[in-house]
Structure formats: C-alpha cells, structure tokens
Write a structure and sequence with these properties.
By secondary structure, the chain is an all-alpha fold. The chain has three domains: 21-218, Up-down Bundle (Growth Hormone, Chain: A); 219-278; 282-496, MFS general substrate transporter like domains (Growth Hormone, Chain: A). 76% of the residues lie in helices and 0% in strands. The chain has helices at 7-19, 21-45, 50-57, 64-89, 91-111, 115-124, 131-144, 149-182, 185-206, 220-246, 252-275, 284-287, 293-308, 310-318, 331-355, 361-377, 386-414, 420-449, 461-482. Helix 1 (7-19) crosses helix 2. The radius of gyration is 23 Å and the shape is globular. The two termini are 38 Å apart.
Length: 496
C-alpha cells in the first residue's frame, strides 16, 4: 500500500513547482495582471477629473492638451531606452525603476499647485508605458527556457490587457465618486499615488529577474539620434494639434512641416548610423524581418483608432441631434459608451488568449485587424442611432483588444534572444506615434468643418465621416500587411 505524502514531501513538491518554469511563469502572470490593473487605473482615473483640475490650477480647458502632449513625448523618448536597458541589465530591475519613477511623479501630481509643476509631474508619470513591454519580455524569456515562450506570452498578453482595461474602468468610475465623497482634489489624487507605490513593492518582492544577455552595450549616440528624431516628429504633430486650440494662424503650419521634415531626415540618419553599429540601439536588420515589420506597421495603424478616435467619438456622442446627426448625450451617458467600448476591449483580449491556443496567431491578428476596419466602416452608413454606434464600437473594440495584447507578444516572438524588451517596446512607440499623428489630423479635420452647420462649435458630419473612414482604412491596411507575415511566424521553438 503506497504511503501518503508527508507534509515535508508536499512542501518539497510545491517548492519544486514554484521554481519550475511553468510555476514561476504562472505566478508571474498573476502579479503582472495586478501591475497592469494599476496601469489601467492611471489611464482611466484622471480623465473624469480634468474639469476639476482646470479649476484647481486656474488654467484654461485647452491647456489640458499640453498634459497629453508632454506625456506622449516623454514616453516616445524613454520607452526604447528603458527597454534596451532591460535587455542589458535585467527586465525586473528596469521595471522596478520605472514603477518607482511613476510613483514619485504620482505623489508630486497630488500636491502640485501650478500648471508647470503639474505638467512636469504628468509627463514623468508616463514612465508607466514601459511596464507592459518589460512584462512581456519577462514572461517570454521565462517561457522560452521550456520552449513554450511564444504560446505562453500570447496567452499572458491577453490576460494583461484584461487587467489593464479593467483597471481603466475601475479608475474612471472611482475617481468621480472619491472626489464627490472627499470634496478635495489633493485627497482624490492620492489614491493612484498609493496604488503605484504598492505595486512597486509587489514588483520588488515577487517578480523574479530575467537573465541579461551578456556582452551587450548601450549605443548612447544611437539613442540620442533616435530621441532627437522622435522629439521633432511628435513635437511637430503635437504643435499641429494645438494650432486650432490656440488659434495660431496659417503661419504655424510652416513650423509643423519643418519639424516633421527635420524629424524624418534625422530618422534617415539614424537608420544609416545603426546599420554600421555592432550592437545598435535598435537593430534595423531585425525590423526588416518579414515577421517583424508588419507587426510594427500594424501597431502604428492600430494607434490611429485606439488612441486617436476616442476624442471624436466623445464629441460626436455629445453633438445635438437637432443638427441631423450626433447622439445628444450628456457627460454621464457618454461615459457609459466609453465603458462599453472598454468592455469590448476586454472581450477581444480574452478571445485572443483563448483562440491563440488553437488557431494560427497570424490568422488571429488578421481577423482582429479586419474587425477594426469593419467596425469603423459601419460608422459610415450607420451612425444616427445609439444602438448602431454601440454595435460598431463593440466590433472595432473586440479587434483592438486582441491587437493590443497580440502585438507586443508577436514582436517578442519575432525578436532574437536579448532583444525581446526593445522589440515589444517598439510596438508601444509606433502605436503612440500613430495615435499622436491621427489625433493631430483628426483635430484639424474636425476643426475645418466647425461652423459649417447650424452650431458654431460642432464639427460637420463630413469631418466625422472622414475620421471613421481613416480608422477603417487603417484596420484594413493592417490586415493586408499581416498577410506578408510568414505562416510559421510566432510559433514555439522546438524543444531542445
């Protein structure tokens, strides 16, 4: 008769499981879902408070645009650098540093009393954007030890996006209620600061370190050139967005053209410089791989609808129906639409995590991109009723949710050992640039039609139709590009 296992043997078995690749990775995913939940809180918490922040700081509503512009600029600059440092010195170490910097900025934000102080703190809070790429790299590197890094990362990415969007919903719903209960903005802003501080402790105590790739060096000059190019392009796009808000006049367009053109010229210089380096900041040869460049291009295109189309959606939903279009919803009702859209993102992320186990990841990516294109294309004929808008958004949201989870994982899978962090991070950078570009273009498109209708403030229907057409074209183009990805891409390596 076999003996029952002793408590000592059970504890030994448990310890063995925890130290195995499977045990550690499973636990890691759980902690990272919590990290992304807090990241979502940061992304959803402040938006309902913007009107109160404006009053608190004594600024104009249009000044809020500078907050987003500053954070986008910082994230575009620091994400590639931090991701490369993660590949060199350990992804956990850099993740912890990014969390500490985000926590410090969040505490600063709570006690900021002037526009410039708040702006600096808001920009520095953008260090959280590197969390997801570093988490993907950590999961992938751990899974790769047992030859299941790709499939594990795909499933984990979907779960991380679920945590992210759930946090955004909770943050958006909680902020207004906490402010109403406390009647004090500083007290309200302490909540995300406390949450980020606690998550930094979680990362420090419970996240294992990755194994750095030996012999790597930091191409400092390469990153300087890259930062210069990103600063010029994103700065030009941010300036383009401000033209209408600040009533700068036609002459300001020459600055936009000059900045963007200069940025493109710097990027050309960057590519030539990197091709001559033994250990470049960003390996251009990797980016030219058939399984990599469509992923990065898709990230740019997804940023158009994911980051650029939300503002137009909100203003369209609030447009008076007496104009013959719009939904005429108040702020509370508009928030429900955004909430439903976020839920559809969660559904898309879950479906990606489930379907990627059996279906080809390449096919899943193509279908997701087609859903984004279809959802926004449906806006062109169907936009007058609330149910039509919700249906269109849900279709596009499912596709976006799948892509947000899929793209960093796909980039990590396509990258060679030692470059998973920078590869997955680049999807965030290209997505951010896509969102910045589309946000600027959409602002101009909608402003051009303002006053052409019965209201002097509402954008024209033609402006909204143009926005939706661009988003639809971006989704369909992404699906087309993904057809160029090899059929065997993103598959697990055979066991050694």
């Amino acid at each position: 008769m076999p003996q029952s296992p002793t408590p000592r043997s059970l504890s030994t078995a448990t310890a063995s499981l925890r130290t195995s690749a499977v045990g550690v990775t499973t636990a890691l995913i759980g902690w990272f879902v919590l990290v992304e939940f807090v990241s979502g809180i940061l992304q959803g918490y402040y938006v309902p408070l913007f009107s109160d922040i404006v009053v608190h700081l004594g600024i104009h509503d249009s000044d809020v645009n500078w907050f987003e512009a500053a954070q986008l600029l910082l994230s575009a600059l620091v994400v590639p650098v931090l991701a490369k440092l993660g590949d060199m010195y350990g992804h956990k170490r850099i993740l912890l540093i990014a969390a500490i910097l985000t926590a410090g900025a969040s505490w600063w934000l709570a006690f900021a009393t002037s526009f410039w102080s708040f702006l600096a703190a808001w920009a520095l809070q953008g260090f959280y954007v590197v969390w997801l790429p570093l988490e993907i790299a950590l999961i992938f590197e751990r899974g790769r030890r047992r030859s299941h890094g790709v499939s594990m990362t795909r499933r984990a990415a979907g779960l991380l996006v679920v945590g992210l969007q759930a946090g955004a919903i909770v943050g958006a719903l909680a902020a207004g209620r906490i402010f109403a209960a406390s009647a004090d903005l500083t007290t309200t802003l302490l909540v995300p600061a406390i949450a980020v501080t606690l998550i930094a402790v979680v990362i420090w105590l419970f996240v294992p370190e990755s194994t750095p790739e030996p012999g790597r060096t930091l191409d400092t000059w390469g990153f300087v050139i890259l930062a210069w190019g990103l600063l010029l392009v994103t700065g030009g796009l941010a300036w383009m967005r401000m033209i209408g808000e600040l009533h700068l006049g036609p002459a300001a367009w020459w600055w936009v053209i000059a900045l963007v053109a200069a940025g493109i010229a710097v990027f050309v210089w960057f590519v030539r410089y990197e091709l001559a380096q033994e250990d470049p900041a960003i390996d251009i040869r990797v980016l030219r791989r058939p399984e990599m460049w469509p992923v990065q291009a898709t990230a740019f295109l997804v940023g158009i609808s994911l980051l650029g189309a939300q503002g137009p959606l909100s203003t369209y939903a609030g447009t008076d129906r007496s104009l013959g279009y719009g939904l005429g919803l108040d702020a509370t009702e508009r928030s429900y639409i955004i909430g439903i859209y976020l839920v559809s993102l969660i559904v898309g992320a879950v479906l990606f995590a489930v379907t990627s186990r059996k279906a080809s990841p390449r096919v899943v990516l193509i279908v997701a991109a087609l859903l984004v294109g279809t959802g926004y294309a449906l806006f062109l004929p169907f936009h007058l009723e609330l149910w039509q808008v919700l249906l269109n958004l849900c279709i596009a949201g499912v596709g976006c949710g799948a892509l947000v989870g899929a793209l960093p994982a796909a980039a990590a899978a396509a990258a060679p050992a030692g470059q998973t962090g920078i590869a997955s991070a680049l999807t965030n950078t290209t997505k951010t640039i896509g969102g910045t570009f589309s946000s600027a273009v959409f602002g101009v498109v909608l402003a051009a039609g303002a006053g052409a209708v019965a209201s002097q403030t509402a954008a024209s229907l033609g402006g909204y139709l143009t926005v939706w057409a661009i988003c639809a074209a971006g989704g369909f183009l992404a699906a087309l590009l993904l057809f160029f990805v090899p059929r065997v891409a993103f598959a697990d390596a055979p066991a050694a």
